[in-house]
Amino acid sequence: MTHENALRAQPPAGSSDPAGPRAHRRRRRAIAAILVLRRGWVLMSERATFGAELRRLRRAAGISLTEFAARTHYSKGYLSKVETGLAVPNAAFAEACERELQLSGALTALLPREPAKRRTRPDARPSGLPPATTVFTGRAAEFQAVRSALEADGGVCVISGMGGIGKTELAKRIAHRLEAGFADGCVFLDLRGHSPGETADEPSAVHDRLLRRLGVPATRIPSDPHDRAMVYQSRLRGRSLLLVLDNAASAAQVRPLLPAEPKCRVLITSRSRLSSLDDTRHVALDVLDTPSAVDLFVSLTGTAPGEVVTRVVERCAGLPLAIRIAAARLSAHPTWTVDELDRRLAAEAERLGELDDGERSLLAAFRLSLRQLSPAEARLFGLLALHPGADLDLHAATALSALPARETDRLLNRLHDAYLLTQPAPDRYGFHDLLKLFAADVVTERDGAFRRLMDFAVQVAAHGDHLLTSRRFVRKRIFGEHPPEPMPLDDETALSWFRAEWRGLVSLCRAAGERGEHERCWQLAYFLRGFFFTAKLWDPWKATHRWARASAQALGDRWVLATTTTNLGVALVDSGDVEAAFACYDEALTLYRELGDEHGESMALAHRAWADHYSGKHTEALRDFQHAQAFYARTGNRRNAAITDRGIALVLIPLGRAPEAAALAASTLTTFNELGLDLDAAMALNCLGWAWFHAGHHDRATTAYHDAADRARACGSSYETARAYTGIGNIAAARGEHALAADFWERADDVHPDLNPLMVGETRVRWGS
């Protein structure tokens, strides 16, 4: 008779057992003990078999226990116990090991038939983790951060991020890894914070669901919310439980669900930051970097990585949900190639509609995020998409919202907390690329808000340009009945504002032209010109003025066309494209003469003189400079007269009149100092140094160049600073001080590399050309 049968056997009715009932009970207990030992030996044997095979395979692959722990995200101690048969492996652990060892089923087949059950109390052990996806890339740093948070005292961690970023998948993956370390298992609960067609669960309702999962009969769950919360906390006392609260709507929803039991741990996911949860570790998920995004797409589709795949994941903006949908669409259409998928995603207007595989939709995911906003927040979310730049500041957002700055700031913070805005810098906000496409579709008050933004941009740019290039001729601007609120700037903050905003202003200039706001288009280009000259940003300078020319033509305003064309010529000359500049100046001169605008004609002649000078036509240049100078002297325009004299000084040098040029340059310096024109003063000092260098007075030239460098640094001109350093290096080289020359030339390269020899005489001397 087997031990099991012997255990079940009972003495026949009416028979007598010589040893009596007590002996029979002792025999049953002995047999039961044998069975327990036997089953334990079988289970230990199965564990040992699994662990021994794992150890053999790991060592054969040349992977240390420490490295294997890092790869699988299981602790080194747990791995050691599994390999020695002291810990129970589960299916998730086996799968992780097989993936790292590039096996298929070899370890899963060795899993123990009866997992050991550690208990802290006789209640039912809850479980129910949903399966984790088999394809998962990146997130190693975030995985470790969450794991560290859950292992620390308190053990509460929030994974937050925008919709579709992969919060739930990461949480499930971590929970599967950690579940074996909790004696009472794991509970996974969707709080329905952002679920289609549902409202977020109230804490009381969640308490009810949790208590049922913990084995509490419905009849014993109190109806009063406070009593129910107390029962919930009491049922967790003494337990070791991992609680995963997915899809949380707010900190208020989550706070009553946090266990008081220190052996319990809580992992929360949310589209909000839940920053008011104290003593909680927060891990924010960002989009995948390009290599991880490509790896995810390739793993899902089996395609080979390449340029087109990279372009597809970039069109998905690194958002895991978008990449998974795109991969699903490709897999569902056997006739499609990756090129066809890329073609369908290319058009921004159609992209969100294409990212829909029938069951998952990016539009639907974004609409759920929008649903959590107040009307004021949703309105601002849409309005911000009207700004075509990569990001914007509070002032621009306030112009769009037409609300007080404080209220706009509050709404911006709320949108950022909801992961509907990014914050690339402390005072700037932006969009994820796909969210911006979505926001552009939900905005309702387009034209009025865009005009407010353009009015603001032109007004501040005009003010900043005035501070950078005071006394420049400016045509009157019209802002309508309600001009935007002025933004305070001074000489320092004006330059900082342009440096921070110029990319967005360039985008606005282009958008204004495309939307038919032609007045604002040319005006914005006009007021960017001074900063572009200072910073030597030639490409955006030329681009904005070409758009402004198109706007001037659309307006039929010949003065605007002539002025914009002249300023485009300056950009072309300054960047070395002298021939194209001549064409601009000839066109502008014709227009000014037709208009009878002597000021404009003189300005165009003076600019054309610079082009003649750089082309080696010094006599022609001197003639045009002198023509313009006569007009400026007659009209009392001291600024333009001094600028023209500086040009004349530069022309006199190649004509063999260097001492005369030095005297003229020095006289312009006096005027620029009196007018407070620091950049022009720095340019005059460089001109003076250049004249004294050619006159053979190296000491005077060195002094002038050093003064030029100081003034140029003070006003933020790296170009004039580099020019001054190059001049000092030339003088040192002429004196045979080659180490000193090399030092100053290196400084010039560090400040502003690649000064054009066509435009900068000092550079021609340096390179002997």
Automatic annotation (TrEMBL):
Do you know which InterPro entries this protein is assigned to?
A: AAA+_ATPase (IPR003593), Cro/C1-type_HTH (IPR001387), Lambda_DNA-bd_dom_sf (IPR010982), NB-ARC (IPR002182), P-loop_NTPase (IPR027417), TPR-like_helical_dom_sf (IPR011990), TPR_rpt (IPR019734)
Renumbered to this chain, region (Disordered) spans 1-24, 113-133
Spell out the Basic and acidic residues composition-biased ranges.
114-124
The record's keywords, sorted A to Z, are: TPR repeat
> Which PANTHER family does the entry mention?
HTH-TYPE TRANSCRIPTIONAL REGULATOR RV0890C-RELATED, REGULATOR-RELATED
Question: What Gene Ontology molecular-function terms does this entry list?
Answer: ADP binding; DNA binding
All copies of domain HTH cro/C1-type, residue ranges = 54-107
Could you tell me which residues the TPR repeats occupy? Answer: 722-755
**Which positions carry the signal peptide feature in this UniProt record?**
none
Source lineage: Bacteria, Bacillati, Actinomycetota, Actinomycetes, Pseudonocardiales
One family from Pfam that matches here is: HTH_31
Q: What is this protein called?
A: Tetratricopeptide repeat-containing protein
Q: Which organism is it from?
A: Amycolatopsis xylanica
Give the matching SUPFAM superfamilies.
Answer: lambda repressor-like DNA-binding domains (SSF47413), P-loop containing nucleoside triphosphate hydrolases (SSF52540), TPR-like (SSF48452)
